[in-house]
Amino acid sequence: MPHNFPQLPLGIGLRDSATFDNFLPDGNELALQALRDDREAMLYLWGPAGSGKTHLLQALCHHAVTRGESLAFLPMGELAPLSHGMLEGLEQQAVIGIDDVQAIAGLPDWEEALFHLYNRVRDAGHRLVVSGTAAPHGLGLSLPDLVTRLGWGPVFRLVALDDAGKRRALQLGARRRGMAIPDEVADYLLRHSPRDMNSLFALLDRLDRASLAAQRKLTIPFVRELIR
What we know:
Elements: H1 29-36, E1 42-46, H2 53-66, E2 71-75, H3 76-79, E3 95-99, H4 108-124, E4 127-132, H5 144-150, E5 155-157, H6 163-176, H7 183-192, H8 197-214, H9 220-227
Parallel strand pairs: 1-4, 1-5, 2-3, 3-4
């Protein structure tokens, strides 16, 4: 089923691998449960880079696709330089995910537009989930009423995976691609590549394509050759 995105000036899509089943909760179980629970209409997720905010928001959107619901996913780090007018009418979407809300802190027009979007989404009875790098009061927002709106629903602090968790996440992602990553190969990747999960999963996609093309298993020599 195609994604029912609003008309945005950027081609914004979802990573195929960003699903609930591909998310290793490890300390973030309550947030994952709340996102899966359709009764929670408004949530706020916050945590450091690599803690899974973007993955969970995109997983929520994938979940909406499977249910035949309309959706919108907005990465504010990319969209903040553009017009806040793109928030107009978003309340018509059944599920809305807004990532990296800290990008609009100090931009009065954007802050006010998001404040009004919260009100419209509540009136429409739809779902809005927002993420940021800090708790609502720590984002540096200039509009106090927007800080209040961000806390209308449950607020979850996400914790980043430690090295053992990242290894398990890589192995989980590999299994879902039909691959196997031995412990020593996963540890090699953690030592010799960027350690944030977005980069690691992008590398996993490269490994998947390369191993299929070469018909080779993932070994340290093969991985070393690829990441050079």
